[in-house]
Fold this protein.
Amino acid sequence: MSMNTTAAFGQHASVEPLLVDCLIVVLNVICGEVVGILGIAANAVSIVVFCKLGFRDSVDVTLTALAISDIGSLVSLQFYYIMINPWVSSVQPPFEISDAILLLSLYPHIYFIRVSGLITAFAALERCVCVVLPLKVHDIFSCKGSILIVSIIFTVSISNVVAPYYYLNLEWTFSPERNSTILRIVPKENWYFGIRLSYMVNDIFVQYLTFAVLIASTAITSVNLHKNAIWRKSISKSEHRKVENKVSIKEIKVVRMLSLVSVSFIVCLLPLCATLTAVGVVKELSQNGAYYQVARLSYCISFLLETVSSSMNAFIYFNMSSKYKNTLKMFFLNA
């Protein structure tokens, strides 16, 4: 994320339109907090359910990892929602609020949301292979293989935040505006190139690559499922007993569930990705720019959508997976 993007998260624009402020309070401070807390609880329940299932299927491993990353994404956003509360700004804490938000909330959130995107893309690709090569999928994807891949995703994605935490440090600095010493970001020499490169790679390239994999995998899966449905209808009941099914009914349900997860991720994450791209290109969207308020409103809506995206997967599982639903019911009955 560039420093221009950094400024857009701050609270120091010279003119703060009342409408934008009210929308931020309603959509982020109120709705974001409520949805986020529900999402953290729902994802925690999902982790318990998948642990109860025993990780017999590679998809259970993938969805457990996705729930963990979604919790990280939601927890980091909770700090952001708390810090942008007007009451917090009014008490003047001993640190620059926008700087603390950037290093303690937004960069951790970016890490976890990138992990969630890559895991979702992996799940979509895995199910795509299940449909295209149903007889070989268990040779290609196994539980141990899925654990290894998601572990690599969590580890490699740390590179998303290496540059920001290397070049940007919180240090005690005298503030003439407050006439006191506060914690604020002090960038290292030549910080701009490192932050800019990280922004281009992680916020632009990786994110759009994730979208491309999700869209391609979901499209290929949908086309092949349609062909499979036609194939099923083309054979008689007697032939159906003799011909080996290309894709089982159970597998089709899993594929449809993960396709909905992929679509919801794209729909909810695309606005922020587009905003980050626009801020990196259009200088007027940065702080004190002519369109700064547009950027603030866009961030406000985008963060709420990201909160929804990280919170809704458990509800998708409950409505589309009988195995998940039955395990959850048994868990509460035996609790």
